[in-house]
Amino acid sequence: MGKVVWLLLSAILLATDAIGYSVQFGMMQSQAVPIYEMSYNISETFRTVEITQKDKLISNINLILVLDESQVERVVVATILTGGIGCNYTILQFTGIQPEESPAIVTVLIYGLPSRQASKIHLS
């Protein structure tokens, strides 16, 4: 019995080393489409990322997902400095405490609605 408990505890502790976290800004709408996806290796304490749309299709952002794919003991905080939900641009700042030899891996996913559809949806 003791070996089974030890094996289960070991498996749980090993599994937690691979789990990161995610932060969600906004809500997913059924008409939303992915408009941005990028992964960043963050080794600095502060990093600012400016995201604007490059194409002529203007979409309003309705969901920003920030996925920290690093180890649990690392801390990365995502902050929207300007723009964001309801806008067609955003500036995100990542603040992190990282060991110098091992950068954080952060993936940003942004979903948006074309402007015509965005004006028809009202959140209460």
Quickly describe the structure.
With 124 residues, the protein is α+β, with helices and mostly antiparallel strands.
What are its keywords?
124 residues; alpha+beta; three-stranded antiparallel β-sheet; 50% strand
**Numbering strands along the chain, what is their spatial order in the largest sheet?**
1-4-7-2
Mean of residue pLDDT?
71
Query: What fraction, in percent, of the residue positions are helical?
Result: 10-25%
Shape: elongated
Number of strands: 7
Radius of gyration: 18 Å
How much strand?
Answer: over 45%
Low-pLDDT residue spans: 4-19
Structural class: alpha+beta
Order of helices and strands: HEEEEEEEH
Strand count, sense and barrel status of the largest sheet are: 4 strands, antiparallel
Number of domain modules: 1
Number of helices: 2
What report would you give on this structure?
- By secondary structure, the chain is α+β, with helices and mostly antiparallel strands.
- It has one domain (19-118).
- The chain is built from two helices and seven strands.
- The chain has helices at residues 2-16, 115-118, and strands at 21-26, 33-42, 46-52, 59-68, 75-83, 89-97, 104-114.
- A four-stranded antiparallel β-sheet has the order 1-4-7-2. A three-stranded antiparallel β-sheet has the order 3-6-5, with no helix packed on it.
- The protein is elongated and about 45 Å long.
- The relative contact order is 0.28.
